[in-house]
Write a structure and sequence with these properties.
The protein has 490 residues and is of the alpha/beta class. It contains 15 helices and 17 strands. It has a seven-stranded mixed beta sheet with strand order 5-11-10-9-8-6-7, with helices on both faces. A four-stranded mixed beta sheet has the order 1-2-3-15. A four-stranded antiparallel beta sheet has the order 13-14-17-16, with helices on one face. Helix 2 runs antiparallel to helix 5.
């Protein structure tokens, strides 16, 4: 970590080309350099997992109690950041230091206190405005949109970019684009176990009943099974037949098929190109738009877009991205360019978010992260080595797991690139829930995923995490699993 240097792929002239005028002033640049150097010195003291400070316990407990009262319920973890970290390590307000393996559910691709991101945020903070809007915005919006469109258009017909401040909002935009293109076709096709966001509409499309409890159900959704690896080619044939049956039952009634190419909340489930291409081609033949949801996958596979790595760009009409880019975007082809008035909004994002997102995208693009031997793939390989070794070494942590059809699940370690998961404790939701709390207490922040079996999910800071650090993470995982079994026994 550190400030930009002569070895950085983006030159100083390029870096300044979209800066607010004050940020380009030499005196201000020197002041920013001083701030960044001081932060670098502070973060260098954070090197390992540490327990909470005992004398801070009462203060932090009072904060959490007040927060729970204001929110109406407690947060998932007693997490209050101290505002300082070192890559994948984060310091909390209680004095503890933990491995952050979820990073805001995949938002903080460069972890905590990365000085390049801090420098970019300071640049953005010097803008004449705090929030960027659709009617009035500065050049930084064009800069980040240009990166996204340039990358997406390498293997697809995506040419336009609408920016908004959340993944849910760009998913709403994508649905509107598809509906307008199909003359208000009322139905949506989606995969089982998908997650789309928590707006009224997206909660109805997402396949998690708890997230739409008490909502008026007015969106017509037809669910398709995701790829079944145990069935292989039979799964593809069955899915194509089911899709054709849906099309025949509701001719010209589908506005889109929205696809997570790698399911996130659903369990980091993967499918081969052949399966997804067969479904996409069926949609293309029927005139049904293909919308690819890459809110979670964007930047985390062997290419910036998962559809690139899978060779599916020719079929993509609309694509949504977010999380690691700090801003979220709906990309679409010329054919899907909507009529005036359909897409707008007061806020896009903060000026600092645009600067940080642009810097993150540039580093990921130019820093050797992608490709079969890129940094993303090497980090995933390190995760698999440690997870597989733990499964082999401690079989008591990994009893047999069965899928909803009662079949034995052979692989207990999975995912792609920066999306990682493993399945201890028989895939039990309740047991993994207890384990996640123990992990947090012991020094690893993670989340669950899946709808049965359930898994432990990692979304590490792939921009900065080193493969060798996985060993320290899994030392905490092993200790936490042992503690969980001991507590269950008592």
């Amino acid at each position: 970590m550190g400030t930009m240097s002569a070895t950085t792929p983006v030159t100083r002239a390029e870096a300044l080309s979209h800066l607010p005028l004050p940020a380009a002033d030499p005196a201000i640049r020197a002041a920013i350099a001083d701030i960044v150097a001081r932060v670098s010195a502070l973060q260098s003291t954070i090197t390992q997992v540490l327990p909470p400070d005992a004398d801070r316990a009462g203060e932090v407990a009072a904060w959490h109690a007040r927060n729970a009262q204001l929110r109406g319920r407690a947060t998932l973890y007693p997490y209050v950041g101290a505002g300082l970290g070192n890559g994948s390590l984060v310091k909390l307000a209680d004095g503890s230091v933990k491995w952050d393996m979820i990073n805001g559910i995949g938002v903080h691709m460069f972890g905590h206190s990365d000085t390049r991101m801090i420098e970019a945020a300071l640049d953005g903070a010097l803008s004449d405005i705090c929030m960027t809007g659709h009617i009035q915005h500065n050049a930084d919006v064009l800069a980040i949109a240009e990166i996204l469109v340039t990358q997406a258009s390498r293997t697809s017909a995506l040419r336009h970019c609408f920016v908004a401040n959340s993944g849910c909002m760009v998913n709403e935009a994508a649905l509107k684009v598809c509906q307008q293109h199909t003359n208000a076709a009322p139905r949506v096709i989606a995969f089982e176990d998908c997650f789309m966001g928590r707006s009224t509409t997206m909660a109805q499309i997402g396949d998690t009943p708890a997230y739409r409890q008490g909502l008026a159900l007015n969106v017509l959704v037809d669910y398709m099974p995701f790829y079944d690896a145990l069935d292989g080619a039979v799964s593809t044939d069955r899915s194509v037949a089911q899709l054709r049956a849906l099309i025949a039952r509701y001719p010209k009634q589908h506005s889109c098929f929205v696809m997570e190419l790698i399911q996130g909340e659903g369990g980091f489930n993967v499918a081969p190109r052949s399966h997804l291409a067969a479904l996409m081609k069926t949609c293309r033949d029927a005139g049904i738009p293909v919308w690819v949801d890459e809110i979670q996958t964007f930047g985390r596979t062997t290419e910036p877009f998962a559809f690139e790595g899978l060779g599916l760009g020719e079929f993509v009409d609309v694509c949504t991205v977010g999380k690691m880019a700090q801003v979220c975007a709906c990309l679409f082809t010329e054919k899907f360019n909507p009529k005036p008035g359909l897409l707008a909004g007061t806020f896009m994002a903060s000026t600092s978010a645009f600067h940080v997102g642009r810097r993150a995208l540039e580093i990921m693009r130019d820093g050797g992260y992608y490709g079969k031997d890129g940094k993303v793939e090497r980090l995933h390989a390190a995760f698999r080595r440690e997870a597989d070794a733990l499964v082999s070494r401690r079989p008591e942590f990994f009893p047999a797991v069965r899928d909803p059809r009662g079949r034995l699940v052979e692989s207990l370690v999975g995912g792609v690139g920066g999306m990682m998961r493993f399945t201890p404790l028989g895939g039990s939701k309740e047991r993994i829930g207890r384990l996640l709390n123990v992990l947090f207490d012991e020094g690893v922040i993670a989340l669950g995923c899946g709808h049965g079996p359930f898994h432990v999910r990692f979304l590490p800071a792939i921009g900065v995490m080193e493969p060798a650090q996985m060993k320290a993470v899994f030392a905490v995982v092993e200790r936490s699993l042992a503690r969980t079994l001991a507590e269950e026994a008592n």
